[in-house]
Amino acid sequence: MDQVDIVIIGAGIVGLAAAYELALRWPDKSILLLEQAAAFGRGLSGRTSEVIHSGAYYPPGSLKARLCVSGNKLLYEFCRREQVPHRRLGKLIIARDDDDLKKLESLLAQAAANGVPEAGLINVSQLVALEPGINARAAILCPSSGIVDSHRLMAMLAYRAEACGAMLVYRHEVTGLQQAPNGGFQVTFQDAAGTEESIGCQCLINAAGLGADRIAAMAGIDIDETGYRIYRCKGEYFAVNNRKAKLVTRLVFPVSIRELKGSGIPVIKDLQGRMRLGPDAHYASSASADYTVQPANARLFFQLVQGYLPFLQPDDLQPDLAALRPRLQTPCGSPPRDFLVKHEVDRGLTGLVNLIGIESPGITCCLSLAQYVGDLLEPVAGKCHLPGRG
Ligand SMILES: Cc1cc2nc3c(=O)[nH]c(=O)nc-3n(C[C@H](O)[C@H](O)[C@H](O)COP(=O)(O)OP(=O)(O)OC[C@H]3O[C@@H](n4cnc5c(N)ncnc54)[C@H](O)[C@@H]3O)c2cc1C
């Protein structure tokens, strides 16, 4: 095979969802997904909070806000239909002081502007009735937030994508890109044995997570001039002693979380009822692949959460996992950035869609992102067709 219609780079949740969506949308197109690791979900998508977010935290009109609200609905529908384990357990966004109460009001207005369903303010007695273990003055209850088994979700997306005809190939690292003389791209990749090959395609989807800026650079894009450079931002989690885990039953997010420059740490529940605290956020070096959790940080986590989780003791926390976010905002305080999802027509790269900086809420948005990519490529993919499929 030396030519396909569509190549997707990356078998994280976004690449898998794109393979599924596009194979479903264009049954006559040949789709090849190339992944450098030995299996799907070995990048960002395997190290998350597994939260189905409601969409309250993102600025109105942003891709994050729009795709989170629509993605939340699509994801629940998919999980119900395909029997992917999930639970709509709801999230409490809590306020602890006067400053937080003001932020809570503007967050509620933002949630309404974003179209987050059923989000509402609850007072302290309602909060105590729902979560007696939490110490806060008020909260927004977001019933549409939940949790999902993200590994089973990825497994189902991979299965459905293949059942619809997409080819998923592991241990193949993309090492080069060139524009083909007659339009489209020539994609060079290396297999596990180091053998180099290449394949032509009309459309190319860059869903390479932490490696997405490198792929864009291979396509000739200056990642500094365009603001496409990724900065790695580490997040650590600590697991809470199982005896205390049942003292909280919902997701609990302080109104200003560290992820967005605040001081609060989220309280995450999983489908087994375990409780984790995290992630925090601090920039790492550009090549960092450091996934260690520093046991000494347990004390800092404890200090940050003890005000709203009064039942915790410092020795209830054990190091859990760490992850690296693909941040677009620079470490030196530039404003938060939206997802970058772009069909690069105006750079003369028709057929290339870059997905860069797909940090949280990328799990929630996987299906809406995939639909968005399909819509961007509709004018090009509608035209290309190769014999041999369909
Ligand atoms: C700490 C943390 C917690 C999070 N929690 C949540 C949450 O609770 N809810 C939520 O909605 N979102 C969450 N997110 C966001 C979510 O994890 C990401 O948005 C999502 O996983 C991104 O998926 P992806 O497919 O773009 O990237 P990835 O999962 O990283 O996939 C990219 C793939 O591309 C492959 N690749 C890279 N370069 C190449 C190459 N040259 N050739 C071939 N393959 C290549 C990689 O090996 C990788 O498998 C969280 C993120 C972090 C960091």
TrEMBL record:
Residue stretches in coiled coil: none
Annotated keywords: FAD, Flavoprotein, Membrane, Oxidoreductase, Transmembrane, Transmembrane helix
Keyword Magnesium: no
Residues spanning the membrane: 6-24
Recorded superkingdom: Bacteria
Keyword Transmembrane: yes
Domain FAD dependent oxidoreductase per the UniProt entry, residue ranges: 5-376
Recorded GO MF terms: (S)-2-hydroxyglutarate dehydrogenase activity
UniProt-listed InterPro entries: FAD-dep_OxRdtase, FAD/NAD-bd_sf
Family note: Belongs to the L2HGDH family.
Protein's UniProt name: L-2-hydroxyglutarate oxidase LhgO
Protein source organism: Dendrosporobacter quercicolus
